[in-house]
Design brief:
Formate dehydrogenase/DMSO reductase fold; about 300 residues; mainly alpha
Length: about 300
């Protein structure tokens, strides 16, 4: 089931492998796309949270990008099969322990619901509540089920309850980052979402440290996995992409003075009510969001293939 990303991943194999299989890059990228698109949908749909702040055109833009992410995630599931003609078997011969089978059904359902929602938004209307709440249920399942399945597999690196919390936290971070990248901070409410995102990044740093410590303490196999991540062949991806680019640098940019907008009117602006220094901080907000998404892909790559 190996589909390496170039010679680097072809040479880097998990230590003390126990026969589950090396998933390469399609499944981790699918986890990232599925989690980000589902979480951003949840943030957009949850009553009284963000939707009332956005115009119908902005909602349509976000839902369209979410749909494209779901379609790309589905394509990655097909790619991982290496025999695309077998994709339909995921629906005929259902395996309750298969990430591919469960993911295919959840993604198909959410794609169909999203098409309905997009059609209603094109008409300038909100979809009926039955579609909205069905979509919310599917989104929650897409965020949570990978962690539950990995946790139930016989591998020391996954046998930690922290993993069950890590997936929804990283999905919330990625969903918020995706909305900031698409819309900026002003349509989402100014400083409050930036503060929440910074808090979630801090929480993820704590969860990451806890997961590494617990996995290393579980068994010799877990200790070898942690060593491979923090000081072995996976170290460049871990320190460079996940920790520095995906956590530390975005957090620094978000909490740097002047990034969290005060919301006060700038007398030099063209119109009233324009947040102070908004133009100076827009690149930091979107840059932070892009780095967070990069780090999210790296984290799922490591979770699936190393720890």
């Amino acid at each position: 089931m190996t589909l390496p990303l170039g010679p680097y991943l072809a040479q880097v194999t998990p230590p003390a492998w126990d026969g589950i299989g090396h998933w390469g890059w399609p499944i981790p990228t699918y986890f990232s796309l599925g989690g980000v698109s589902a979480a951003s949908m949840l943030l957009l749909q949850w009553p009284g949270l963000l939707r009332s702040r956005l115009s119908v055109a902005q909602q349509r833009q976000v839902v369209l990008v979410q749909l494209l992410a779901l379609l790309l995630g589905s394509a990655l599931l097909v790619l991982d099969l290496r025999r695309p003609e077998r994709f339909l078997l995921l629906f005929v011969n259902f395996n309750s322990a298969s990430i591919l089978a469960i993911g295919a059904r959840l993604l198909t359902g959410l794609i169909l619901i999203t098409l309905v929602r997009l059609w209603y938004l094109h008409r300038g209307q909100a979809a009926p509540r039955v579609f909205e709440w069905t979509s919310i249920g599917l989104e929650a399942a897409i965020i949570l089920y990978p962690a539950a399945l990995l946790f139930g597999m016989p591998r020391a690196a996954w046998a930690t309850p922290v993993l069950l919390l890590d997936f929804p936290v990283t999905a919330a971070i990625g969903g918020g980052a995706a909305l900031l990248l698409l819309l900026g901070s002003a349509p989402l409410g100014g400083p409050r979402p930036l503060g929440w995102l910074a808090g979630l990044l801090l929480l993820e740093i704590v969860l990451l440290a806890a997961r590494l410590g617990l996995v290393a303490a579980v068994s010799a196999e877990g200790s070898k996995s942690v060593a491979a991540v923090v000081g072995g062949p996976y170290a460049p991806v871990f320190w460079g992409a996940q920790v520095v680019a995906g956590l530390v640098l975005p957090l620094t940019l978000l909490v740097w003075p002047g990034v969290v907008l005060s919301g006060e009117a700038d007398p030099s602006a063209d119109g009233p009510g324009v947040p102070r220094r908004a133009s100076a901080t827009g690149w930091r907000v979107r840059g932070s969001a892009a780095l967070i998404l990069l780090g999210l892909v790296a984290s799922k790559l490591l979770v699936v293939n190393a720890i």
